Amino acid sequence: MSSSAATRLRREEDVKRAGEIQSEAAIKGGLRMGAIGLGLEIILHHTWPSFRRQRLPFKAFLLSGFVMTGLVFGAENALLRHEAQRRQEENTLRRQARLELSQRGIIPTETEIAKWRALREVENSPESDPGPSPTSSA
User: Which domain of life is it from (predicted)?
Assistant: First the structure.
């Protein structure tokens, strides 16, 4: 597999993972803010007579506003955290690649870093690790 294909595959997997993270966080944020909105509406209904006179569609509209706010902000915050973590991991990996390539006397260009990464992925893949041999017994 070429390095560009490996990079493309890695990016596609990261996009899928980011989507999963966003949807999970959106659901949790929507539920959390929906519970807060419902609690506030219950409190307002029992303490404020003019709110008690409001019709159900208006109260449902307010509640849906809370839920949508939770959905949006929950997903956005989760995505920002995920991107910051990925950026930190990428920077650490690139720093390590630059250091190792420089120690070998190779100028750490983008191409060389991609080759280093591909070689490292092959070395760390489970297929390259033979594990314990079946003939050895304890």
Answer: Eukaryota
